[in-house]
Amino acid sequence: MSERLVLDTSWKRWRHRTDLPRVRDERPRDIGAWELVAHARRAAEAVGIEEIVVLDTADGLSALAVVPVGLRATQRTRWTVELTQDVATPVYTAKLSASLQRFSAGRLAWRIDPRGWRGRHDVIEEFVTVARGVWRERPYDFSGEHFRVQGGGLDSPLSGRPLPPLEIVVRDEDDALLASRVADRIAVETLDPDSWPDLGLPLAARVSLASAATSTEVERLSTAEVVGTYDAVAGRLAPLSERATWLDLDVGDRVEEIYRWGEHVAPRIGALIHG
Amino acid sequence: MVDVYWRIGMHGDQSTLRRRAETRGDWAPLAPGHLAPGWGDGHGDGRPYLEHMADVARAAEISGFVGGLMPSFPFTDDPFAAAASLVEETRTFRFMVAFQPGFVHPWGAARLSAALQQLSGGRLVYNVITGGGGPAQRWWGDEVEHDRRYARTAEFLDLLRRSWAPRPQSADGEFYRLADAYLPTDLADQPFPEIYFSGSSPAAIAAAGPFADYYLSWLEPHTALTEKFTAVRAASQALGRTPRFAVRIDIVSRDTEAEAWEVVRDGFSGVDLTALAEGRDGDSVGVARARSFIDGPVRDVRDLEVEPHVWGGFSLLRGGPSFGLVGSHEQVAERLNGLVDAGVDAFILAGVPHLEEAFRVGDFVLPRLTHHSPQGALS
Q1: CA separation (Å) from B258 to B253, B264, B265?
Q2: What's the pLDDT tens digit per position in A139-154?
Q3: CATH code of the domain covering residue A69
């Protein structure tokens, strides 16, 4: 089991400069989300997290803006971009992704959360079919309910790169059915393995880390479902490795949690798993 | 002041205009002497073509260009992906991203653009194109016919502007639907990108009216260009807007006129003139117009010179539009000054190879763009 960092950039920290009445403050007016993205990326690299998942939330930065910048700023980190419904056609998504695969030596992955598609599993399935179709075949023709392509298909040198692996966020049986049709891997948002679908696909389980930086109990690390000392948290999470390929760490806007995780929790989990 | 952009080759580059053979990028097989991607120890060194785009952008930036156009076609790398990748490697360079409204959602475009505006300090510029029709349009998954594509472009730009706001906006259009679209305050505060609008048909000019900051045209003979500008001006003034004009121009500029024509003549001697009749499978009015300016049989390179230094054979020597300027640095600058005097506010210039020519044009042509051009420069 390894960790991935989940970035939901709808964070508030630094997005509006706090007044510092007695302090010379020369920060740019709109210092904010991008600075946090850079911090998070550097922290992930520092602690050995090899993949960053960028969510596409209306209150945050567009994932399609964050991921190209991240791919360029890193040499080995893999980046997963969440694709939502109101962004681009499948052909444009495939073409843009093909360029990112070329620029990054194939470090891009796709994520689809049915919530970002108003639950329209039929649209998602057709979207994925077309995006993969133009990636794999030329000429490619498709005539569906939502999309049509005639004589399509990426040509060399855009063609021939590995398709970005696709993960589907699974919350219910409909999501699981969709995932069984199109997913290369799945993401779940509970830490209860009994609730996880058994699709025979690699699985990522999301854990929210949110210890307050102002807390005096700096030795404690809390999560949405796990609160306790570093040992207790590690003890709670390590058994998940029996079924989870990844732990998806969501630290909100507290990027310093990434360092705390890397220094204190990750080694304890490693020790528990590997003895 | 005039905004002068350069062009970033999004599908490789040639090392010379004298031979139509791509040596930069992986659109042609990698071979010794091909620089980007690099060739080391007898093998490709794995550098992506993006590295060369970065070099061209930096060359243009330090040579005095305000930014660069990043075109978009089925066979090119994607300009949004490339612009986002290169923002942090440039300081003042503006990324003019070409895109077709049919392929992105207005709110998605707003969210992507505002984020890039915040990261870049407002260096994103739009080149809104509406597509040349034919098989290329269907390749993109787009079956909307010519005039309705422009109606879609107008609706897209309207909804894009409306969703660039902190309060949720909803709309049911003919082509797009907005449901509570908005931007977070810090992103809604970002400057809306300038719009360079392309299109030569009456439908295009009508669609451009309410939205275009710059009406962008390929270089055409002087009379045709001024007629087009007059039509755009009339359409815009009816809407209470004063349009600005930009012209996309390829350049062969050398110390002497003879040297410049030698480059073009060299390239011309090796081309198949049937290419002059190619590209008829779309519905682009711009392409049809360009072809109409060339009269009579073409046997010599100068048969394509429709006005002094205005040469209509560039599409024979490299991919892209037909017309460009050929001459000494002084002559090329004089034509450009003449266009400014005729009301042009911005240029998108290009030359092959783009990296070396960015330096050359920056060194020898841009300094000659002055406020005092000779009378009759366009005659």
Answers
A1: 10, 10, 10
A2: 999 999 999 999 999 9
A3: 3.20.20.30
